[in-house]
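okkk here we go again. third time trying to get the zinc ion bound version out, last two times i messed up the smiles copy paste (missing a bracket lol). double checked this time i swear
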Amino acid sequence: MAARRSVLRWLMVLIVCLPGLTSAQGAPPQPAPPSAFDATRVRVGLSLRKPVTTARIQALRGTCRYVLSPIPAASGTDPLLSQERSGKIAEEEDLTFQVTHRGLTVRTSEGAEYAEGFGKMVVSSDGVFNLEVYNLSPLILSGRLEITLLDDGTVGLVNETTIGEIIRSAVSEISPSPEIEANKAFIVMARTRLKAALEQKRHASDTFDLCNTDHCLPFHGQGSNRELIEILYQDMPDFVMTAQGKVFLPYYHECCGGKVSSAKDVFGIDDPIHVAREDRIVGKGSENCFHSSSFYWTREFSQEEMADFLSVTFAGGGTRIFLRWDPIKTDAAGRITEVRLFGRRERKMRGVDFLEAAWDYFGINSLKSMRFTLEPMRRTTIYRGMGRGHGVGCCLMGADGLAKKGWSFEDILKFYFAGITLTKASGGPGPATASPPAGPSSPRKPARPRR
Ligand SMILES: [Zn+2]
Ligand SMILES: [Zn+2]
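finally!!
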């Protein structure tokens, strides 16, 4: 009942806020992040699905300034190719850069042209801007973007933005749930992951602090930001999960298929937080993620198709080196945790590495997880599987199911992560009870839409 009242309250908040959200003009300014930790500026290395050699940057709101720096001289005697140049992109105007044999060349919609070639461009915005790369969805970014010419003739992209911005974008991107408590859990999980990734200095040898892939947290700008996430984010203290007083890197996946595996079985990491468990509450109906479209799946692979995958991915295209594979270790959940490739040679690997390689080769809709049984046919094999992803940590669809059963975000997190406590990222005590924090007396204004 309390959960239903809470849903109604949020619906009311949404309705009250909607007129402001849909108006592009005169929308409220972007609210400040709720905490010092979330206001931290970090450098995110943007890895897109293909190498970038040309792109367009458009000032969507506010003005962008750009500074072009010369290509550094190769030796002390080489003259510099050009001088530093700068300019601005007015709102709705744009700039296109391209890598040519001279370096980065730039042209703006307002007529400026820099054809001599540069080594680096820094674009800083006081609002938001679009980064458009041909054939990819545009990335809506804020803060500062560094575009650096690389030796291979492509550019490296680093966006300097805030932790709060990454949390909102990442949760909007990964969450399959419309539920308030599930999304609150994902916000806490995302913040915990970022804090742990920064503390672990996962990118100490790079020119950035975090990457935008699953290695740290997916971040593809604000293009997909959902209003519900914006509102929930503004309304919550900056909780993170800790275990024995420390943040940790929480794992998550889309759907476990009813059984979560341990980090020990899947990754070979001794870890008391990511333990195996059934994703169901006894006496409360079916599995928490039973409503996922990936709960059950079937895919048929021909022998040739599988052999091509093995040879391209694991043998550098060499034929007959690996012809087939078989499972050699399976955990209690039925997840294949170790496989053997064989043909002229033999190789063993973790199941999760095999899964990632299959995703790279076939796409994420083919072999959805390593939890499947094999049914050999005459020339094909049928894979009958359950769930999507590695199956460790938080089952996102299960969290959605638990929220639908009336669970709070704190209880959802404690269900998937053993022995954790909630604390504030910026210091101060965490919540004293298991109930979600009380909302504000009047709804705060949400962030401006960024579509
Ligand atoms: Zn990373
Ligand atoms: Zn599940």
